[in-house]
UniProtKB/TrEMBL annotation:
The gene is LOC106767731. Pathway: Glycan metabolism; pectin degradation; 2-dehydro-3-deoxy-D-gluconate from pectin: step 2/5. This is Pectate lyase. Its cofactor is Ca(2+). One of its GO terms (biological process) is pectin catabolic process. It comes from Vigna radiata var. radiata. Belongs to the polysaccharide lyase 1 family. Its EC number is 4.2.2.2.
Amino acid sequence: MATSTTPLLLSCFMVHLASTFVFAHSTGNNYYNNTPQPLSKYIPKKPLLNVIDSCWRARPNWSSNRQALADCAIGFGKEATGGKYGAIYHVFDPSDDPANPKPGTLRYGAIQNDPLWIIFDKDMVITLKNELIMSSNKTIDGRGAKVEIADGPCVTISNVSHVIIHGISIHDCEPAKPGLNTPDHVGHRLGSDGDAISIIDSTNVWIDHCFLARSTDGLIDVIRASTAITISNNYFTQHDKVMLLGHSDQFTKDKIMKVTIAFNQFASGLTERMPRVRFGYAHVVNNKYDEWKMYAIGGSANPTILSEGNFYVAPNDPNAKQVTKREVKENWKSWKWRSSKDLFFNDAYFVPSGVGSCAPNYSPTQYFAAAPAYMVPAITLNAGPTYCTVGRAC
């Protein structure tokens, strides 16, 4: 939805100003609860910009300088350039032919060897006949059109780097069949499990402003030594196992994994894994959790998790109030899991563990300041695709 430029610029200033204050019913580094405030107090009347959106959404010329979006990432995926240094590629044909991709289709652009910034000339629903296996240095940019990948296999990011997916809906994904990949059709895959987005042994990936729901397996998997990932401004709903970070309890190469999960809305109908982490590091910051059926944040194999400035609303089920779940019965108290300045409602609570620093240790270019948790409902209000209009600020 388009918004006037002045309020958007003011909201960016408000985020930085508000970050200097401390509010009640939050957890600090020492884990404490104060007298809770009513949930209705935090219901926003209008959206505010987070630090990613303030980078580009107030600009009415976004459509003539699309590749500037690549400069707006934060956190561990900050360096993801996507197709910033390539040509603009137009998708005008929603059909799909995995064996012989046609120019003008999404698949043809996504598998090219050269960097490309992929955009869409019109609204479309793309039903893939097999998984879309992307090449390096690609951006899928849905701004200016309503784009869905649905009712078939979905997106695989495997053994590549510098991929951005922005502003599309991916839902009702199904398992893929064994098939071929790359422009020369020389890479053979054994199929996929039905994830919406699978990130496998890949680096510098940014998933932003997408809608994800109702897939056969997970909505986003980050596995097999993938790292330098940011997952931001997405809207997750109606799914069981939402987000998996780490392949298995035996795959120790995932110790290098670093993922930033920021400004997402975990909405209705979600059960667990928001995220579930193995071995690596997850900075879970400024997300809104609208209940869950089992738990919100879980893990095994000694991952490190910092929950910072999140907005947790527990379900009414008295047995599901805990935000956290360790997938072991013992030997987890040394794991570094911390809650800092989170807000909790409806008796939600976070069980911390471990000693020593849990900071993400971002580089100067990756660093961003978390907004106060009370602002999270406003800065996640426009999570998901933005449906921008050419010539107007988003």
